[in-house]
Specification:
Blueprint: E1 14-20, E2 25-26, E3 31-32, E4 46-57, E5 63-71, E6 80-88, E7 96-100, E8 110-118, E9 122-132
Antiparallel strand pairs: 1-9, 2-8, 3-8, 4-7, 4-9, 5-6, 5-8
Length: 148
């Protein structure tokens, strides 16, 4: 159970599992694309990040940028970086962000996430993040049918 999303999460595609983030940090795990077989073959891939513990800071003005980094080695002096999205200071537990991965995001062997706070020091906040091809994209809409 990730926030309000229920889905299968492959351990080889897991970046963070309830990782506490209060300062700039890399995800606790990296993804080795050579170890992952046919990840999303023929399907779009997404990074899902769930805020498990609400972000707080003294001024309620912090943000947390989440970027994906790619490298040809495990040293992570990244050859490639792209910011996926930003959480705001009001991000509560259960807040979920999803970003579609593009071809450039998958060109290098190793991937990790980089969490970068701005505008203040976070005192709390934890996140779970992973790659998946199956995001919960279903939305309920009114059916415009009147039953009398």
């Amino acid at each position: 159970h990730i926030g309000e999303i229920y889905m299968y999460v492959d351990a080889l595609l897991l970046f963070s599992d309830a990782q506490a983030v209060t300062a700039t940090a890399a995800s606790t795990s990296s993804v080795d694309l050579s170890a992952v077989r046919d990840a999303g073959a023929g399907e779009d891939l997404y990074v899902v990040v769930s805020c498990d513990v609400a972000m707080t800071d003294a001024g309620s003005d912090s943000t947390l940028a989440v970027a994906i980094e790619g490298d040809s080695t495990t040293t992570f002096t990244p050859d490639y970086t792209r910011t996926l999205f930003t959480f705001s200071a009001v991000s509560a537990a259960g807040t979920i962000k999803v970003a579609k991965l593009g071809p450039d995001d998958l060109n290098l062997r190793y991937l990790q996430l980089k969490y970068t706070p701005a505008n203040g020091n976070l005192t709390t906040g934890s996140f779970t993040a992973f790659i998946t091809s199956q995001v919960d994209k279903w939305t309920a809409y009114a059916d415009a049918i009147t039953i009398s």
